[in-house]
Amino acid sequence: MTFRNETATATTATPKRRNRARMALMAGALTALPVAGLVTANAASAAPATVWDKVAQCEATGNWAVNSGNGFYGGLQFTSSTWAAFGGTAYAPQAHQATKAQQITIGEKVLAAQGPGAWPVCSVKAGLTK
Question: Residue 77 phi/psi, 5° resolution?
């Protein structure tokens, strides 16, 4: 009896197809990798609301709606230019008119761009880190 390898012709024709499939898979993974990195980087850099509460307590005695007339607004004491530059005007004309959550959203953007030094004294007191 003679053994006949029926799969021999099928396996010799498929390496090119396998390589194409591998390349497509790798290309998809490499394309998705930067996007996944951005998502995890943003999530990882978010400070807890309790830390932002401590910053606001130090900056504005915890009053998220404060307009003290000194050119700084809201619980995190944004200037008008910083509020606008980081997209805050999509929420409200000035920070003190925005919700706490909206101010924290802009605070996260400022923190990512400028670091905790944007609140030099209160970031240290509150334990705010990048």
Answer: 55, 60
Helix axes 15-45, 100-114, angle to 10 degrees: 110
How is 78-102 classified by DSSP, letter by letter?
Answer: B-HHHHHHTTGGGT-SSGGGS-HHH
| CB-CB contact of 130 with 102 (8 Å) | no
Question: With b meaning 16 or more CB within 10 Å and e meaning fewer, what string describes 11-23?
Answer: eeeeeeeeeeeee
Distance in angstroms (rounded) separating the CA atoms of residues 118 and 86? 13
Q: What is the pLDDT of residue 34?
A: 39
CB atoms within 10 A of CB 37: 10
What is the pLDDT, as a whole number, of residue 12? 52
Per-10-residue mean pLDDT of the chain, 130 residues long, equals 54 56 48 37 69 98 96 98 98 98 98 97 96
Residue 127 Ramachandran class (φ > 0 left, ψ -120 to 50 alpha, else beta) = left
Tokens representing 39 are: 């998502």
Residue 114 in contact with residue 92, Cβ under 8 Å? no
pTM above 0.85, yes or no: no
